[in-house]
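TEACHING EXERCISE
Course module: macromolecular assemblies
Task: Read the component lines below, then compare them to the predicted structure of the full complex.
Student: A.B.
Group: 4
Components provided:
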Amino acid sequence: MSDFNLNSLEECLEKHIPPNELKEVKRILYGVPEHDILELPASATTLAADNDFEIQGYRISAQKEHIRKPRIVRVGAIQNSIVLPTTDPVDKQREAIWNKIRIIIKAAAAAEVNIVCMQEAWTMPFAFCTREKFPWCEFAEEAESGPTTKMLQELAKAYNMVILSSVLERDTAHGDTIWNTTVVISNRGRYLGKHRKNHIPRVGDFNESTYYMEGNTGHPVFETDFGKIAINICYGRHHPQNWMMFGLNGAEIVFNPSATVGALSEPLWGIEARNAAIANSYFTVAINRVGSEEFPNEYTSGDGKKAHKVFGPFYGSSYVAAPNGARTPGLSRHRDGLLVTELDLNLCRQVKDFWNFPMTQRLPLYAESFKRASELDFKPQVIRE
Amino acid sequence: MSDFNLNSLEECLEKHIPPNELKEVKRILYGVPEHDILELPASATTLAADNDFEIQGYRISAQKEHIRKPRIVRVGAIQNSIVLPTTDPVDKQREAIWNKIRIIIKAAAAAEVNIVCMQEAWTMPFAFCTREKFPWCEFAEEAESGPTTKMLQELAKAYNMVILSSVLERDTAHGDTIWNTTVVISNRGRYLGKHRKNHIPRVGDFNESTYYMEGNTGHPVFETDFGKIAINICYGRHHPQNWMMFGLNGAEIVFNPSATVGALSEPLWGIEARNAAIANSYFTVAINRVGSEEFPNEYTSGDGKKAHKVFGPFYGSSYVAAPNGARTPGLSRHRDGLLVTELDLNLCRQVKDFWNFPMTQRLPLYAESFKRASELDFKPQVIRE
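Instructor-supplied answer key:
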């Protein structure tokens, strides 16, 4: 289905389109005629070269204001493949991924990143395609006190960095319920809170409703030293109303840690998180894993095709979108990578003042309309001849 | 700001990117490795050639089903410039545009189009930039019985075609209120109903709140012989909740008649209507006018720049997006044009069954959350350290 010789869409456009036309193509496709490249220190780029991951840096600026100072924040998006075979012991698999990510977070620190976010369920293979509970549920851990959270608290404190860690959560206080959760760790190394995935897919290999239910944590926004942030986990990006509630709660950056494969969603990938940035006047950070993952037992994909063992390829292509509709290029479709983007958070309010989307939202109309549409005896507004 | 030597993004990609890579680029950017070209009859293409407008045809198919037959519908999207100088008498200006559009609708009939939609306020220049009421309000007419509606009723009947006509409406029953309205005329030539623009811009040259208020017609879906259709007028495309309500009322195709200019919105244009198609599992038809319009008196744009007389260029680029995320190429950025797209409406339900977006929508949660967010004493859900 997908030609993985194409490292990224942007590389292909840069290579073939003549410079003058390229500017206009990029203006239409990326919202800027030329990307503002962020110079990254050698300490970061060397780590990337030595450890075989991509690193890219961009800057998205705002206008100078009279009263507010610029609010410059660097966000890091990490995409990666798993490390060990899925047949290895669960703790070994997790540790190997930890080790890889520790190095990328170190590079993020060298690049002066303030907030870093990993992909969805980053400590494990995306095993939900199998519908098997064993051994995959062993990857689940307590959000507040699990080994991954503890490990990252050290790094967060050492690097003065907010870390968003999406894990499979085991909720022992509620009967060992499993959740798909993002843990927010403050730059002082404190557990700040968590968000549970609001919308759960039942599509293709994404048998996630087999493992966990719709989240019960609402739409929290975390007020950090580096801005108000929120997390819309994976499939939640298909639901504009989910994005909206994070905006209504005041988010300035919404991260979208994901795991999704090319044949399913690649044409949608550049659309959804970017539309959310536009509609809600905030930044979005879309993160997807890379590589293919082979499982010990054959499984079927609900598509009438034969049982098989490999899930993927996940197509990476992580990017940042801005409230004014501009976006960065994507990371590679198949390599581990760190995308560093320097944002001026003042752009959010500037875009609100310019476009007036919140002001023209007519929220009471939709509260009422959604309520009516939810009722069992809802009669759609249909006009017939 | 914009290089109008670029006729369309698609032409540029086709010209410069080698065939093998082009397939993958198109798969990522357009959701299909190759567009399915719809052969159009000479009677249609000759009209286009003779009258200097572009014509393009595409097909978007669905899977064969056991029980339902394919529901094949052809939609036509018309984009155009105005004809006479804006200093000419209002009735002459309107008549000249009528004459141009009559020919394009004739070509649509030759191409067996079932539903045709023109751009926003198609009978007039987009004079709202001026903030002048005279003579522009003279373009307003009764939705039910105005001269444009009457003229189109003849064509609709003659061609067995549903026609969506976006006009400035004069509502004499309510104190000569002015509205931005789309009139729906059935293929039997009957006035079927109307929809009034739900969200009104206050941005740049779009001084529309000077002329009319937020619509009071809800989110009607019109059940026609050719499927359930709705209209999201222009600025309403920035509001995902607006798109959603048309979906909740059962729309299979939502038209987005627009008027928007390059410097303001071109990078957003390919994102918003397409995101709506994906999120709501229906087809969307995004239509924008072309050309520049010169007004008799200087006006300012609220951007700190000098007063001027020309509004534009509008960038055309009309396109159709499908529920599975695929989209057609866009029409030209600067020529009049007719985009004919053959759709199988069965794709809507097929995509719903595949992706489950309506089922996973959690509407009661959002009805409640939007209600809370609308209240004067709303406290956003914020977590602090």
